[in-house]
């Protein structure tokens, strides 16, 4: 069961590279689908944002196990696909995320640390 995610966000398409951006986007979705078929990731979801004048045009969240996603982030093919996208869109970035059981675990850790802090701070 997925406990982590990769948030891959991007901004506007570079003017003049619209066709290439579409090709890279479609190739990337096929790549993620193949990773899902191989059970390297649990799944992924694509979100395209409405026009809003901001820097974020859309994002993909890849769901999986922490260790597998850590390996994916450093995988040469994954990195090359990010490079291709970077040549077509502005502001591309990858951020690790916690989902499902990962959120539960992190919030438990937070509560424990908060309790520890309260016990050491004089009231």
Structural account:
With 123 residues, this protein is an alpha+beta fold. The chain has a single domain, classed as Alpha-Beta Plaits (2-Layer Sandwich), CATH 3.30.70. 49% of the residues lie in helices and 21% in strands. It has a 4-stranded antiparallel beta sheet with strand order 2-3-1-4. The longest helix has 20 residues. It is globular.
**What is the second-level CATH architecture?**
2-Layer Sandwich
The figure for the number of domains is: 1
Q: Which CATH class?
A: Alpha Beta
**What would the CATH topology be?**
Alpha-Beta Plaits
Report the helical percentage. Answer: 40-55%
Sheet of most strands: 4 strands, antiparallel
Strand content: 15-25%
Quick check: average pLDDT?
95
Number of helices: 4
Form type: globular
Low-confidence stretches: none
Biggest sheet: strand arrangement: 2-3-1-4
Run of helices and strands? EHEEHHEH
Structural class per helix/strand content? alpha+beta
Oligomer: single chain
Radius of gyration: 18 Å
- Give me the count of strands: 4
Termini Cα gap:
42 Å
Secondary-structure blueprint:
Layout lengths: L3 E7 L7 H20 L5 E6 L9 E7 L1 H9 L1 H11 L6 E6 L2 H20 L3
Antiparallel strand pairs: 1-3, 1-4, 2-3
Question: Quick recap of the structure?
Answer:
Helix content is 49%, strand content 21%.
């Amino acid at each position: 069961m997925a406990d982590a995610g990769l948030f891959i966000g991007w901004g506007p398409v570079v003017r003049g590279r619209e066709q290439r951006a579409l090709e890279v986007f479609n190739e990337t979705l096929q790549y993620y689908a193949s990773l899902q078929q191989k059970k390297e990731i649990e799944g992924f979801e694509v979100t395209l944002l409405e026009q809003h004048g901001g820097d974020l045009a859309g994002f993909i969240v890849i769901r999986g196990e922490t260790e597998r996603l850590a390996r994916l982030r450093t995988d040469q093919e994954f990195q090359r696909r990010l490079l291709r996208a970077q040549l077509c869109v502005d502001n591309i970035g990858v951020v690790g995320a916690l989902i499902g059981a990962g959120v539960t675990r992190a919030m438990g850790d937070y509560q424990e640390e908060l309790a520890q802090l309260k016990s050491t701070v004089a009231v």
